[in-house]
Amino acid sequence: MDDPLPSPPLTPVQTVLTRLIGYGALLAGLAGIIAGFVLLGDLRPDIALLGLLAAIVLLALLPLPVVTVTQTNGEHLPVVRQEQSVAAFAEALADPCFVLDRRGTVLYGNAPGARQYPGLLPGRVMTLVLRNPDLVAAIETASRTGEARSFELHETLPAETWDKVVVAPLHRADQDWLTDDGRQMLVTFQSLTELKRVDAMRADFIANASHELRTPLASLMGFIDTLLGPAAKDAAAREKFLGIMRTQSDRMSRLIDDLLSLSRIEMHQHVRPTGSVDLSSLLREVREGLQTQAKAAEMDVVITLPQEKVTVTGDRGQLYEVFENLIDNAIKYGGTAKTVEVTLSSVERAGLHHLVTVVDHGPGVEPEHVPRMTERFYRIDAETSRKKKGTGLGLAIVKHIIQRHRGQLTIRSRANPGEGLRVEVLLP
């Protein structure tokens, strides 16, 4: 954005008018006094007029007086013009900001500061409300030296948060900091909580992805070494090891495909789909595509659809992936149940109109696992998941696709294990 243009200088006439307006009250009072003398007969009108003109000329040549505006804030503390400017600056900040005196007493706090730290009221000492050694040291050092200090504030109650705190002295150009009894400091809090969480998620993701890839890779390298060495001429061992190697290669391939899929979805997370999708037709297509897995598990996928056509705005390929993942999971983890139930119905929930439910009658999961099931690489039973060729990314992919479609994903497991899992997908 371009800098604002400077105001043009006043012309001589504008300058004179500005000064006369500034002395308007004085001129009015003087004119009233002169008029009084004229009415009493103590002063001739022509002399009075000349005197008033002389006063106007004199005041037009004088500079405007410097007016100091004083007001009272909510705590009945005097606030001069400079402090008003500091308060206006603090209110303009989106982050919590507080103005302190040299003793660390709060003089002013902006609206975000009042929301985040309701106990930091004007008149209270900040370090007695926020009892943090780093904060105490930063305020004391800034007050003593006149130099800004910053540190990272980590709090665990009532929730875990991180903030970058900056304590900056407010210097006056005409005052020495160390001898100024009215010196003030500005304390700002910049939230780092989301950045910390994203960094933690990224670190966990890299660690989990590396682990998931390293395991089959180590297995492949071991079998290759065996085939090149002791089992080089053993046909039976070669056939067995090559089969295991193919399984491990497939596992790596699935994992890489899911990672790429998740990356593509996140890349377009904020771009809302614009295509038109027939949900009834899509669900039938998904069911047909999973018939092989269902027959192998001796299960039947039962679909209940409305008679009329149900059309939603979305990405057909991504919605196919959503319901393929959910129905495939129901087949894999449905235990000894014989059916997986898929139902499409109409609802009215906060702008969401279409509900797809996928219900299995398998062992279900303990309630404490439900909130974490959409986390990347989160597995309730890692060994069982690997045996069933799961990568730990399926529900994470489902969650991100539903979010992109401005929908809602809900997973429910009954209180008693063994009564199945119910997954609901709401779409606008």
UniProtKB/TrEMBL annotation:
Q: Which InterPro entries does the record match to this protein?
A: BphY/WalK/GraS-like (IPR050351), HATPase_C_sf (IPR036890), HATPase_dom (IPR003594), His_kinase_dom (IPR005467), HisK_dim/P_dom (IPR003661), HisK_dim/P_sf (IPR036097), Sig_transdc_His_kin-like_C (IPR004358)
What reaction is this protein's catalytic activity?
ATP + protein L-histidine = ADP + protein N-phospho-L-histidine
**Where does the chain cross the membrane?**
20-40, 47-67
Example of a GO cellular component annotation carried by this entry: plasma membrane
Xref: SUPFAM superfamilies? ATPase domain of HSP90 chaperone/DNA topoisomerase II/histidine kinase, Homodimeric domain of signal transducing histidine kinase
Quote the PROSITE patterns the UniProt record gives.
Answer: HIS_KIN
Transmembrane among keywords: yes
Q: What is its EC number?
A: 2.7.13.3
What is the official name of this protein in its record? histidine kinase
**Tagged with keyword Cell cycle:** no
Keyword terms: ATP-binding, Cell membrane, Kinase, Membrane, Nucleotide-binding, Phosphoprotein, Transferase, Transmembrane, Transmembrane helix, Two-component regulatory system
Supply the PANTHER family for this chain. Answer: PHOSPHATE REGULON SENSOR PROTEIN PHOR
